[in-house]
Design goal:
171 residues, mainly alpha, Ferritin, 75% helix, binds fe (ii) ion
Length: 171
């Protein structure tokens, strides 16, 4: 049985994952309207993944005797200065999520809530993957700079990238 504090903390995380899904969707639109077709497809997949993260938490809260709350949708950011800035925003967002997951794990430890602690390990692994993926994309963008041809290649690259991501850790 979840404590009230844990239930509230998990519901707060449900909201964050829902927002991440909405943010990736807004980013996909930005990329699609600028001709970055591969990147747009990549971001649409990320948006779907975040919704899956949200639902996984949602079902867990109800299964563990709490009441999952369907979050309201905050308006995500829809404009970005550049391709590179977009990925900087993504990495910062993912790092923020990792911090919150870590805080949830600490709370589970404090409360000796081993079930939730065990459940959260999937998110710990997932965040490591996401941060490393976006760090590597940003590294490439730093090399590319404003080279249009290289940017075009990276966009093509992203079309397939992340397609199998998550399969390693998916339930
Ligand atoms: Fe997530
Ligand atoms: Fe994520």
């Amino acid at each position: 049985m979840l404590s009230k504090e844990m239930e509230a903390a998990l519901n707060a995380q449900i909201e964050k994952e829902g927002f991440a899904s909405a943010q990736y969707l807004a980013m996909a639109s930005w990329a699609e309207n600028r001709g970055f077709e591969g990147t747009a497809q990549f971001l649409y997949r990320q948006s779907d993944e975040e919704r899956m993260h949200m639902l996984k938490l949602f079902h867990y809260v109800n299964d563990a005797g709490g009441a999952a709350i369907s979050p309201g949708v905050a308006i995500p950011r829809k404009d970005f200065e550049s391709f590179r800035e977009l990925f900087e925003v993504i990495l910062a967002q993912e790092q923020g999520v990792s911090e919150r997951i870590n805080a949830l794990v600490s709370l589970a430890t404090e409360q000796k809530d081993h079930t939730t602690h065990n459940f959260l390990q999937w998110y710990v692994a997932e965040q490591l993957e996401e941060e490393s993926l976006f760090r590597s994309i940003l590294d490439k963008l730093k090399i590319i700079g404003n080279d249009g041809g290289a940017l075009y290649m990276l966009d093509k690259d992203l079309q397939g990238n992340g397609a199998n991501k998550g399969s390693k850790t998916a339930p």
